[in-house]
């Protein structure tokens, strides 16, 4: 005879508060959001560079590199074909971030509302990852 139902491992449910898919946005909104984020990130990285002798920042051709000798080099760039921002981190590895609205509902217009760049696989936000690994404080809604 088979085991009792309670003997089986429960099937893991996706976290209710973790996004399971990116918010659909137009190409124009993607560029607006991503450019705003990249510009704000570059500005904060340059401020960090001014306060720390060991930090090097380079922003060229849409690719932002932040080098911290104790950790390595972070590379952040837009990926327009996928409407993503990609990060190569020496600490957490490569990640692809999608624009996700918080509390997205049917009443919201495409690309509007408060959102963040989220790694869909584990729910990590790009702003939180940069705060934890690099020490950059970013506004959530970029």
TrEMBL record:
GO annotations of cellular component type: mitochondrion
- For whether the record's keyword set contains Thylakoid, the answer is no
Q: Which GO terms describe its molecular function?
A: 2 iron, 2 sulfur cluster binding; ferric iron binding; ferrous iron binding; ferroxidase activity; iron chaperone activity
Q: Where in the cell is it found?
A: Mitochondrion
| Documented EC number(s) | 1.16.3.1
Q: What domain of life does the native source organism fall in?
A: Eukaryota
In Swiss-Prot or TrEMBL terms, this protein is called ferroxidase
Q: Which InterPro entries match?
A: Frataxin, Frataxin/CyaY, Frataxin/CyaY_sf, Frataxin_CS
Q: Which UniProt keywords apply?
A: Ion transport, Iron, Iron storage, Iron transport, Mitochondrion, Oxidoreductase, Transit peptide, Transport
Among the Pfam families in the record, one is Frataxin_Cyay
Q: Which family does it belong to?
A: Belongs to the frataxin family.
**Region (Disordered) location:** 1-31
Q: What catalytic activity is recorded?
A: 4 Fe(2+) + O2 + 4 H(+) = 4 Fe(3+) + 2 H2O
- Natural source organism: Piedraia hortae CBS 480.64
Which BP terms in the Gene Ontology apply to this protein? intracellular iron ion homeostasis; iron ion transport; iron-sulfur cluster assembly
């Amino acid at each position: 005879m088979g085991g009792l139902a309670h003997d089986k491992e429960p099937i893991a449910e996706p976290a209710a508060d973790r996004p399971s898919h990116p918010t659909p946005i137009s190409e124009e909104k993607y560029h607006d959001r991503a450019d705003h984020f990249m510009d704000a990130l570059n500005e904060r990285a340059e401020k960090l560079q001014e306060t720390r002798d060991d930090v090097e920042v380079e922003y060229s051709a849409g690719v932002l590199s932040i080098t911290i000798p104790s950790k390595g080099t972070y590379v952040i760039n837009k990926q327009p074909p996928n409407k993503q921002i990609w990060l190569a981190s020496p600490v957490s590895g490569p990640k692809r971030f999608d624009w996700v609205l918080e509390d997205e509902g049917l009443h919201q217009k495409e690309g509007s509302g408060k959102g963040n760049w989220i790694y869909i696989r584990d729910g990590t936000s790009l702003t939180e990852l940069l705060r934890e690994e690099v020490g950059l404080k970013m506004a959530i809604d970029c």
